[in-house]
Amino acid sequence: MKMGRNLLKAFLLISLKKNYKNGLKEGSWKTYSAQSGILLEEETYSQGVLNGVKKTYYTDGDLNTSIQYINGKLNGVVEAYHPDNILLMKGMYHNDLMIGNWDYYDITGKIRKTVVYEKSKSPKTYLYLAIGGAPQKLSLDGY
Asked: How many CB atoms lie within 10 A of CB 20?
């Protein structure tokens, strides 16, 4: 299976723009669809380490994910999108750990779930359900 995925990846992507400095990844790296030329992924390196925003794109060019890295670690806002640029999920990392509110949205852009991450505590989960009008925030803790 791994060989098949690598073959598929090689067939679909292949077109890369990359830089090296002293044998290490440096600066902007971009991956394009070999067939369409559409940008599929972009990331920035400093001395071989991810630094900056890494973005992935759907094959039509719409943004799929946006993730912030500092010195190779997840630090900052992470966002994922449904096709057509509708927010799917938004959260925050600090030194590779999930922190704060992670919000999840449906295809219409309405918030459906929040998971709250606090240092040294189990995450708290809330669902948003439309019951007779405005969405109600329901805690799933203790279930």
From this structure: 12
Residue 113 counted as domain residue? no
Asked if residue 94 is part of any domain, the answer here is yes
Asked whether the beta carbons of 51 and 71 are under 8 A apart, the reply is yes
Task: Tell me which residue range forms the domain holding 29.
Answer: 2-100
pTM: 0.79
| Whole-number Å distance between alpha carbons of 69 and 67 | 7
pLDDT tens per residue, range 2-37: 444 444 454 555 567 788 899 999 999 999 988 888
Instruction: Say which DSSP state 30 is in.
Output: E
Number of domains into which the chain is organized: 1
Kindly state whether residue 123 falls inside one of the protein's structural domains.
Answer: no
Which is it for the CA torsion 75, 77, 83, 84, positive or negative? negative
CA 65 to chain centre: 4
8 domain-assigned? yes
Long-range contact list for 43-49, CB < 8 A, 24+ apart?
43/69, 45/19, 47/21, 48/24
Q: Computed from CA positions of residues 139, 140, 142, 143, in that sequence, does the dihedral angle turn out positive or negative? A: positive
